[in-house]
Design goal:
mainly alpha; Hypothetical protein af1432
Length: 192
């Protein structure tokens, strides 16, 4: 017990004088149960890099950065898995992560609803939604996406509204349905 107290005191003292200030990047990766092809894995790495960049620019805490990155590495973990008809890869990944012990409701909701949006999200969901949509490897409008991505650290909420609006416009233009959760998410963003 005394040894543990001395170790804690030493760690505290090192932080106080600046010796322990080296920024550590969270060592996150795909879970062992993930089923992703190489192309999907590359997408997830690009999303993680974008989130890392934003977290650094926004000077978020290590704890919050870890939450964001946990959601990133889980969001498409079952994208290439064979799921029952009508099952969402996000919901399946959130359920599997919960079985593995992930208890952070914000992380689980971010993973579960990352494709459609969710009105009750905290920052984890919003950052994942943005990074997934704006990651530089996506086809189409890469310059526009890049400009939006650059604005996120300074104007996150404005960019989020633009991204949700674009997503809904694309769906309407292509004749695809808009999920009721997306509409509720949009409404939550415009009520401020």
């Amino acid at each position: 017990m005394i040894r543990e107290l001395w170790q804690r005191a030493g760690t505290w003292l090192a932080r106080l004088v600046g010796l322990g200030r080296r920024r550590r990047k969270p060592a996150l990766r795909l879970p062992a149960w993930a089923q992703v092809r190489r192309k999907r894995h590359a997408h997830i790495r690009r999303v993680a890099a974008l989130v890392e960049e934003w977290a650094e620019a926004m000077q978020v805490s290590q704890r919050e950065r870890r939450r964001w990155l946990t959601a990133v590495w889980l969001h498409d973990a079952l994208r290439d898995a064979r799921l029952p008809a009508g099952a969402s890869h996000g919901a399946a990944a959130a359920e599997r992560a919960a079985q593995d012990g992930e208890a952070d409701r914000g992380v689980l909701d971010a993973v579960r609803y990352h494709s459609v949006g969710y009105a009750d999200w905290d920052d984890v969901g919003k950052m994942l939604y943005l990074a997934d949509y704006l990651e530089p490897g996506r086809r189409g409008r890469q310059k526009e996406r890049g400009k939006l991505a650059e604005r996120v650290p300074r104007e996150r909420d404005d960019v989020l509204r633009e991204v949700v609006a674009r997503d809904m416009e694309e769906r309407l233009r292509d004749g695809r349905p808009i999920d009721p959760l997306t509409i509720a998410f949009w409404n939550s963003l415009t009520r401020r």
